[in-house]
Every structure is written in C-alpha cells, then in structure tokens.
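Re: your question from the hallway

Yes, I did run it. Sequences:
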Amino acid sequence: MSIAYQTYVITLLVYFGVNAIAVWALNLQYAYAGILNFAFIMFQAAGAYSAAVLTLGPSTGATFQSYFFGASLPFPLPWLGAAAVGAVLALLIGAFAMRPARRDFQAMVMLVVSIIAATLVVSEGSWFNGQRGLAFVPHPFFHAAAGNFASPGIGYQWFYVGLTFATCVVVYVLVHLITSSPWGRRLRALRDNPEAIESLGVNIRRESLKVFMIGGAIASLSGAILVQYIGSWSPGSWATPETFLYLAAVIVGGAGNNFGVTIGAALVLGVFMEVVLYLPNFGATGVAEAIQFMLIGVLILAFLYWRPQGLIPERRRRFARRAADAPPAPLVES
Amino acid sequence: MNVTQPGTSDESATQPADPRILEVRDLRIDFGGVHAVNGASFGVPRGVVTGLIGPNGAGKSTALKLIVGALHPTGGEVVFEGRQITGWAPDRIARHGVIRTFQHSSEFPRLTVMENLLVAAPDQRGVSFLASLGGKRSWRANQNEIVDRARELLAEFQMLHAIDEYAGRLSGGQKRLVEIMRALMAQPKLLLLDEPLAGVNPTLRLTIERHLLRLRETGLTMLMIEHELATIERCCDSVIVMAQGRVLAEGTMGELREHPEVIDAYLAG
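Structure:
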C-alpha cells in the first residue's frame, strides 16, 4: 500500500474514531436525556482549542499566532484538560439553559450561544488567533526538532489510529455503563416525560445538567483528539451547520442505540460525505459543499418521516421470564 | 404483592397524632386576575380515601397541582405530615411520599411497562452517574428485587402479559393502570389521583375501580378527583366539594346530597 493511500486510510480511521466519540456524546444528550444541543459543535471546538493552547506552549506574541494562556503539557493532560473545559462550559451554559424545563427554550439557547461563541472567537484575535485559527499544534509523543514542522511518519500515524481507537474503547465502555444502568433508564424516562419523572421524585434540572456536562466533556475530548492529529483548528472547522451533520448521524444510525449511531457516523460522516467529494467538478466554487449540506438536510427529513427509529433502533429491554407472563390480554381497548 | 402504605407500617408508631396527613389552608392562586383557587381549605385524613369533586373550573386539578408543587400558590399553605411543603419543588414533595397521577395519560411511551414501573422505585442503586460506573454487579441484585416487586404488582393488576410492551402502545385504560402501578411502586404515603377514569371505557372503568377499592382496603391514603359520582360514592369515605376555587362542603355523599349549596353548584348542574 502506498504511503499516500495509507495516509488517506489513516485519516479516515482517525476521523471515524473522532466522529464515533462525538456521536456517542450527542446520543447521550439527545436520545437519552432529550436535550436538543444545537451548540454541540461548539463543545468539540472548545476541546480542540483547549488541547491546542495546552500543548502549543506560552504565547510570546513573537510568532504568527497569538492565543491566551498557553502551556506545554504532556499527554494525556491536554485531552483531560479539554474534557474538563467541555464539562465546565456545559455547566455554565446548562445552568441557564436548563433552568426552565422547556426543550424549545433549551434548543434556542444552544443555537444562540453557538453563534455568539463563533462570532466572539473570530472577532477577538487574542483568544485563539481569530479567523486564522491555531496551527502547528504538537502531536502527542512526537518531538520535532525546534523549528522543524515536518509531519510525523506513517508509523506514528498508525500509532495515532491506535491511540484514537483505544480512547474510543474507553469512551464506549463509559457510555455503555451509563446507558445500560438504572440511571440510563431514568434519563430515558426524563426524555419521554419530564413532568412525570419529576412527579416521582427526580430533580430533572440536575439530571439534565449532569448528562449535559458528561456529553460536553466527551464532545470536547473528540475535538482534542482531532486537533492533535490534524495539527490546526480554525473557526471554519466548527461552523454551526456541523452540528447537524452529527445530528444526522444519530438520527440515521438510530437515536438511543450506541452501536446504531456508530454506524450512522460511519455512513453519514464517512461514506456519505466522502462520496460527494468524488463527484465531478461543476458550477461555482463551493457548490459541492452546499450540495453536501442540502443532501444531509434531505437525509434527516427522510429518516424522520419514513424511519424515525433509524437504521438500528433503540433496544427494547425485556423482562418477561416465561410464557406464563404472556396470557391473552384481558383488557379491552378503550 | 400486598400494597402497603409506609405510613401505616412500623413507621406509624412514630407518626404524629394528627389524623390528617395533609392540611390545605386558605390556598390561593390567580391567573391574570382569575382566582382559580380562592382560599380553599381542607384536610385529608390518614388511611382513607377522600374524594374531591366539583363542576368544571372549580379548581380541583389546580388545587392538586398546588399540593404537589407543580404550581406555586399566591397565598395559603400546604402542610404534609405536620411539615410545611408550600413552595417546595415537585420532586422534593414526591420524595417525601406525595405521589400523583395525571389527568391525561402520562406514561413513558418509549419505555416498556416494566421499565415504567422500575423508574418509580425509590432507593434504587445505580441511579446516578458515579453509581452507574460500578457496572451491573453494583446494582443488579437490587434491581432484581425491584423487578420482583413490579412483577407481583403486574400480576395483581393482570398486566403481566404486557410486561415488555412499550407503554405508548397500550390502550388508554391500560395506560391508566400502568400509571397507578407506577405510583404504587413509588411507595406513596399519600396518593393523589386526578380523574383516574377519564377517557376509559366502561368495562375498564370497573376494573380500575375494583383495584382502587382493593387499595383502599390496604389502608393507602388517597385523594381522588373524579367526575363520576357513583364511583366517588363507592370508593371514597368522605368527599370534598369545590366550586369557584373554594370548598363548598365536606361529608359523605349521602350528606352532600342534602346540602343545598352543593345541589345548586354541582349536583343539580
């Protein structure tokens, strides 16, 4: 296999790992707790920026890029730091957004916050170098000579695939433990009927906030993994419509099914997005990208209309032990 | 499974002497100048079933929402087991044993019938983030016990056949039964039923009524809003009549039939 082809495969695999982690986070928030997080991509961006400034070293102002704070923390501290930033950001936003238990309000707060954040990051150049973004973010365990910005070799890139997939395993186990537990069941009840679960003694704001923070931390982790692979991050990487790509993956794969949304991530964010890139050039610059988003919109609507449960629906938890549990229904339809 | 009321078991020895488990005093709420509840005062005796009746717009359901904390009163107070609970959040009131059912079906539609019951059980293990990280071994034994309790309840209500059915796919009457079972799983000290027979066909009405009568025999304290007076007469020990946000009268159905204001406001209407 040629180096170029291997690099292409590696890039697809790293992106798949990052996208899988991201959709598990969104699945946790949206499909388990009913939180429509239209600011989702902002959490991934927060993780990417955090990991970048935690590895780039102090900003001296002498280089072509400026940013606040700046440190050279060893792995895995930048990833853990990014996850912590995601959780804190979720706490700050959620404390306001979750206050009234109204989903339309929550969704609009997320959307507005996401747009405000993008505008601020672009206009305030001293935070994360504005529109130009941050570049030359160091790779974990890779030490280039000073001033040498050479890319790591193919062996290192395969190592990064392994690191990404190892993180995927850890995050999947974490998400599985949550979603298969009585707490996961309580979250699904909260999603279905907040008023009813509150009437049974559950503090719905606190539970929503908790899961929002966990999802925010995982989303930020996905951003940290990505930025330390591609080495750069700019506002163009996290435009608001990117959230809908992840939402499409969850809806297509099967909201409420962690394996299903993984398939959704592979199909929508991998196959679907890649195939469009191979279309012959036509029209003005940017037409292909616009078509991508149009098709994603159509895909979301089509699934919501014809197959709202997605390709692999949420698993039904069964408790029947024997045939005796299933006598003919004695009750009459009202 | 014998449905037990925590307040009537060993705990009863430490209960206050007050025979009233719930006291509502001068309760008020206004909606833009409309006095939905306008100085209502009544008590709910421990261990019996109390009916709450009145014409549409009398303030019955609003009063119930004020009791459970779903609405905040503009005046008055709610005292449960001698403790002021006015203005408390609904979840906090529920954790103290005041459990309600809803006027409209309020099942968790994408949870199975069994799951609808399991989420209501108090003192479960594995219901927090950190507890969930312990894995099945940390909560499975506890869940098995709760599943057994739920299974007994389903058998009593003749709903075992629907154990793995999504609650959203049940008939209206079956949803009512699930809601009542779910409330019982929460081990209430006081169960508030908001029109438990609304929208249910006559056959299933009798089934639900039979279950309510059985619960009454266990000594479970209930406050029931219902329009069907025959049901109120069969199920309730005493009845409170509301009209225009106030309490008109209290007594047995027999006594209320002779009450001129009640006849004017409700029975004749």
